[in-house]
Amino acid sequence: EGAPLLFSPLTLRGVTARNRLMLAPMNQHRAKDGFVDDGLLVHLGKFALGGFGIVMTEASAVLETGRIGPADLGIWSDAHIPGLKRVTTYLRSRGALSAMQICHGGRKGAIQRPWHGFGPLDQTDMARGDNPWPLVSATAEAVGPGHATPEALDREGIDKVVAAFADAASRADKAGFDILEIHGGHGYLIASFLTPVVNRRTDEYGGDLAGRMRFALEVATAVRRRWPSSKPLFFRMSSIDGHPAGWTLADSVVLARALKSIGVDLIDCSSGGLRGSTAIENSLRYPGYQVEYSSAIRRDADVATGAVGLILDGPQAEAILAAGQADLIIVGRQALYDPFFAHHAAQALGHDPDFENWDVSAGWWLAKRR
Ligand code: FNR
């Protein structure tokens, strides 16, 4: 009997991850003007020490006005590169691949930190120095009561955002990232074009599925051109947006096929988040609640996929891979609970009994302890 699938390497283009576990993108709301600080380096570094094959940054803004909250990580300026380079250098030194998620928040921008209520930035936030900024979206409709009404992007505005994504890709390459992910889900700018619930445009960027997909495909094409062909490109989508008249799983399969044909290597299969809250995640909280989307997209679009959403331990992750439901296991909150998730999953699966995958300064002692 061979090694667990979870600990088999994953090769995409010119890079190989040591296992099938990736840290989910998770906004830390700690960046000042988009810059990495020591806290973020330590935060991400601990997951490399914890054995993850790939460590992904939080949603990183391609424009200052594309931030979700005031303290998002940024990649809208060359000045961000050196701080990010510290992160990628450290992750590599601990055997993990580094990945960056790039994002434009669209109409879901200028919001408070989750623990301040997730609402629009208000007087209390402004007193802290967190001022709102003008928003853009597919359509001039606010995400909810109290939120600013975004400006609908015109042709020139669209071109500027596409160029910003491409510039971000080149900066991410300079910063040493191995993998790049475009955030196309959760109601942010790209998702606002995809779903008919928000996109009521009458130009070539709206209307039928092809029209609504146009912006996402232009972004992915521009990014793929600027991102080295030796490096993998991921795309996160909301596989369904949860609205009865909204984006469907069948739409996701069509989009996944189109993305694959322009050089996207893996679809990160999330869901929901169309409005302010992630309604689907909140209403359907059972282990592996989004795995079925990964499974369907992988099968029907014939593309590599990542499964995410309450994947809680090694045996559950191994079963998902064994059933052919995903190529990559993406772990969010359980990794916040246990940064050593990957090492502990290996123990649970009877892999690495001698703690050889641990940092030697820990592993040497743990092997002696038995
Ligand atoms: C998230 N999530 C998220 N998703 C994303 O695409 N970009 C992001 O920056 C964030 N930020 C973020 C912060 C925090 C603290 C959490 C808990 C979540 C969603 C995340 O990547 C993941 O899809 C969900 O959390 C579901 O997976 P888990 O947590 O059940 O493993």
TrEMBL record:
<feature type="domain" description="NADH:flavin oxidoreductase/NADH oxidase N-terminal">
    <location>
        <begin position="6"/>
        <end position="349"/>
    </location>
</feature>
<dbReference type="InterPro" id="IPR001155">
    <property type="entry name" value="OxRdtase_FMN_N"/>
</dbReference>
<keyword id="KW-0288">FMN</keyword>
<keyword id="KW-0521">NADP</keyword>
<dbReference type="Pfam" id="PF00724">
    <property type="entry name" value="Oxidored_FMN"/>
</dbReference>
<dbReference type="InterPro" id="IPR044152">
    <property type="entry name" value="YqjM-like"/>
</dbReference>
<protein>
    <submittedName>
        <fullName>NADH:flavin oxidoreductase / NADH oxidase</fullName>
    </submittedName>
</protein>
<dbReference type="GO" id="GO:0003959">
    <property type="term" value="F:NADPH dehydrogenase activity"/>
</dbReference>
<dbReference type="GO" id="GO:0010181">
    <property type="term" value="F:FMN binding"/>
</dbReference>
<dbReference type="InterPro" id="IPR013785">
    <property type="entry name" value="Aldolase_TIM"/>
</dbReference>
<dbReference type="GO" id="GO:0050661">
    <property type="term" value="F:NADP binding"/>
</dbReference>
<keyword id="KW-0285">Flavoprotein</keyword>
<keyword id="KW-0560">Oxidoreductase</keyword>
